[in-house]
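Work Package 3 committed the consortium to producing structural models of liganded targets before the mid-term review. Because experimental data for this complex are still outstanding, the team generated a predictive model from sequence and the ligand definition alone, so that downstream docking and mutagenesis planning could proceed in parallel. The input record is reproduced below exactly as it was submitted to the modelling pipeline, together with the SMILES string for coenzyme A.
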Amino acid sequence: MYVLDDNGVKAECVVTDEGDGVLEIKNIAVVPECHGLGYGRALLDFVARTCKGRYSVLQVGTGDSPLTIPFYEKCGFVRSHRIEHFFTDHYDHPIIECGVRLVDMIVLRKEL
Ligand SMILES: CC(C)(COP(=O)(O)OP(=O)(O)OC[C@H]1O[C@@H](n2cnc3c(N)ncnc32)[C@H](O)[C@@H]1OP(=O)(O)O)[C@@H](O)C(=O)NCCC(=O)NCCS
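The resulting structure, written out as tokens with the ligand in place, is given here.
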């Protein structure tokens, strides 16, 4: 788990080793009052710099949502594949973002 501290905790994420040189970002979150200030990008860049050379790919899975996909794309991730029905199969309640129910998980990847 990585925590970004800038006069107090501003962001965190968990990074898991998925095997075959692939690392996965889980549960990245920035303190709500601090969205849009660059903390999310700084945390992803830090993880990429820290793990470069030991791993080949950084990946993340997210819903097909305008709240998250553009953020990852701005940070250099590209869409890799989709896991169909992930959110409907694994959660016991609907997850709605921007008025749309999340169904598939979109996996994005960035070469390290
Ligand atoms: C998604 C999240 C981590 C982004 O962190 P952030 O600190 O707000 O993002 P940054 O300020 O580092 O943004 C980096 C770039 O992405 C862009 N961006 C961020 N969110 C965006 C959005 N919803 N739509 C379009 N662009 C977005 C920023 O404008 C910035 O681009 P720029 O450098 O060209 O200006 C943050 O919004 C968050 O914690 N959300 C709630 C939890 C969550 O959804 N986590 C993701 C789970 S998959």
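Reviewers should note the following from the model. Helices lie at 39-51, 69-74, 86-90. These observations will guide the Year 2 experiments.
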